[in-house]
Amino acid sequence: MCEKIHVGIIGLGAYLPDRVLTNKDLEKMVDTTDEWITTRTGIKERRIARADEATSDMATEAAKRALNDAGLKAEAIDLIIVATITPDMLFPATACLVQDKIGARTVPAFDISVACSGFIYGLAIANQFIGSGTYRHALVIAAEKLSAITDWNDRSTCVLFGDGAAAAVLGPVEKGGILSAYLGANGKQGELIKLPAGGSRIPATKKSVDDRLHFIKMNGVELFKHAVKVMAEAALEATRPLGLKAEDISLVIPHQANLRILNAVAKKMGLSKDKIYLNIDKYGNMSAASSAVALVEAVKEGRIKKGDKILLDAFGGGLTWGAIVIEW
Ligand code: UT7
C-alpha cells in the first residue's frame, strides 16, 4: 500500500497596498464616525489598492513572496488556484494571469468564487491534488480588490472592506500538515450578500450603473447571525474527526469580518479570546485574503510554532463556509 502523503504549507507571502484609509478619512466621505466603526466592527483602518493595481498584480506579488519563502522557483509549481470575487475580469481567470506573470509552466490554473471562504476552499482543493499524488506543489492565492466593488456612498458597507493578497505554497511534508478540511455552502442564503450586476443575469447597462448594481449589497444583521453559527459549526466539524477539543487548538486563524462575530465564535467554541488571531483593526474585511493574510502575519509574529495545531475558519458569500486543521 502507498504511504499517505502529508500535505503542508511550505511557503507563505502577503502583499498589502501602501495606501491606508483610516476611519477618520471615512468620516470625511460618508456620515459615519471612528467611534461607530470601531465599536461595531473592530476596524480602525484598511488598505486600498492603486487605481492601476488589479487583483492579479497583488496576487502575483504575494505569490512571488511565498515562492521565495518556500525556496522554490515558479517552474516547480504544478497547480495554481486563485480565490477571489474581484478577478481582473470575468475571464480569463486571474490564476491564468498570475501563471504568466510569475513565469510558471503551462500548469492548470483556475479561480474559485466562494467569497471569504476562498482561501480555505483553495487549500482543501490543493490538499486533494497533492494528497492523491497527482501534483507535487500548488500555489493557493487569495487576493481581493474589494475597493473596486464597494459603494463609496453606502456607509453601511464602505467602512467594512479593504484590499490585499496572500499566497501559500503547498507541498509534501514529512508529518502533520493538513489534518482535516470541512467545507459547506447554502445557496438559499445567497441573497444576503451579493454583487447583482455584471454577470449574465444583469449585464452591464447604463441603468445597471445608474442603479449602483455593480457594488456589494449586503444584509449585515442576518449575515452576522449566520456567521457566528456556521463558523462555530465548521470548527467543530473539522476538529471532531480528529478527536480534538477546543483546548488542543493553539490558535484560530479566522476570516476577519467583524470583531464582535469573532468574540461570539470564541464564546461558542469555549475558547479564550487570545486564541483567536486578529488583524481586522489594520485591514478590515478583505474577503478571501483576510484569513490568508492573517495566517502569514501570525507566522511572522511567532504566534505559530512547529507542532502546533491551528484552525483556519471562515464563512462568506454564497453562503459558503469552511474550516481546516493544520499541524504546523
Ligand atoms: O465577510 C462576510 C460578509 N459580511 C459580514 O459578515 C458582515 C456581518 N455583519 C456585520 O458585521 C454588522 O451587521 C455590521 C457591521 C455590517 C453592522 O453592524 P450592526 O450592529 O448590525 O448595525 P446595523 O446594521 O443594525 O445598524 C445600526 C445602526 C443603523 O441606524 P438606525 O437604523 O439604528 O438608526 C444604521 O443606519 O447603525 C447605522 N449605521 C451606521 N452608523 C454610522 C450603519 N452603518 C453605519 C456607519 N456609521 N458606517
Question: What features would you describe in this structure?
Answer:
With 328 residues, the chain is an alpha/beta fold. It is 33% helix and 24% strand. Strands 1-7-6-4-5 form a five-stranded mixed beta sheet, with helices on both faces. Strands 8-13-12-11 form a four-stranded mixed beta sheet, sandwiched between helices. The longest helix is centred in the C-terminal third of the chain and has 20 residues, at 220-239. Oxa(dethia)-CoA is lined by residues 32, 36-37, 40-41, 116, 155-156, 159, 193, 220-221, 223-224, 227, 257-258, 285, 316.
Topology:
Layout: E1 6-15, E2 19-22, H1 23-27, H2 34-41, E3 45-48, H3 55-70, E4 79-83, H4 94-102, E5 109-112, H5 118-131, E6 138-145, H6 155-158, E7 163-173, E8 177-185, E9 193-194, H7 206-210, E10 217-218, H8 220-239, E11 251-254, H9 259-269, H10 280-283, H11 288-300, E12 309-316, E13 320-327
Parallel strand pairs: 4-5, 4-6, 11-12
Antiparallel strand pairs: 1-7, 2-3, 6-7, 8-13, 9-10, 12-13
Helix pairs in contact: 3-4, 8-9
The structure holds oxa(dethia)-CoA.
CATH superfamily of the largest domain: Thiolase/Chalcone synthase
Helix content: 25-40%
Q: Can you tell me the number of structural domains? A: 2
Q: Average the pLDDT over all residues and give the rounded result.
A: 97
Order of helices and strands: EEHHEHEHEHEHEEEHEHEHHHEE
Question: Nearest-angstrom radius of gyration?
Answer: 19 Å
Uncertain regions spanning at least 5 consecutive residues: none
Shape descriptor reads globular
CATH topology of the largest domain: Peroxisomal Thiolase, Chain A, domain 1
Number of distinct helices: 11
Number of distinct beta strands? 13
User: What is the CATH architecture assignment of the largest domain?
Assistant: 3-Layer(aba) Sandwich
CATH class of the largest domain: Alpha Beta
Bound molecules: oxa(dethia)-CoA
> Numbering strands along the chain, what is their spatial order in the largest sheet?
1-7-6-4-5
Q: Kindly, what is the distance between the CA atoms of the first and last residues, rounded to a whole number of angstroms? A: 26 Å
Give the class from helix and strand content and strand pairing: alpha/beta
* Beta fraction: 15-25%
The major pleated sheet works out as: 5 strands, mixed
